[in-house]
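User: Fold this; tokens only.

Assistant: Input:
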Amino acid sequence: MNAPRPAGLALLALIVTASCEAPEPAMMPVILPPAPEVQRQAETGEAAAQFALAQYHLGDKDPAVMLRWLRASACQGDPLAQVSLGVLYDAGDRVYQDRIEAYLWFSWAAQQGNSEAAQFAVDLKTAMADDERAFAETLLQDGWLAMLDCRTQ
């Protein structure tokens, strides 16, 4: 018979004691507000600062501020903001669900060389019905990349 290994005993002891302990209260991350300079940069139109403010407001109960900064950044061509909007529209998370709009945001980011966005666009295009796919391609060809979101800010 094999003798128990010390590492195995230590792991077993850890599992047993962990199951006997009272659960610790959930830890909430501390999110520091962006520096005033980031706010100023965002207000003057710097896409990276706008994306940073969108990230800061991600956990807000009302997504309006987060979406405002995310759209501002995406409309200026920030590929991370564009992918983020695509993900939100694809999932219907904090915005209405719209696979065509998601596909357009992914395509715009992919045109800038974002490989993740390119894969998202391919996957979404494959999942679309033929009429959705044709409409989305027409919008891309017609230069709809100026997007309603960008024109209504």
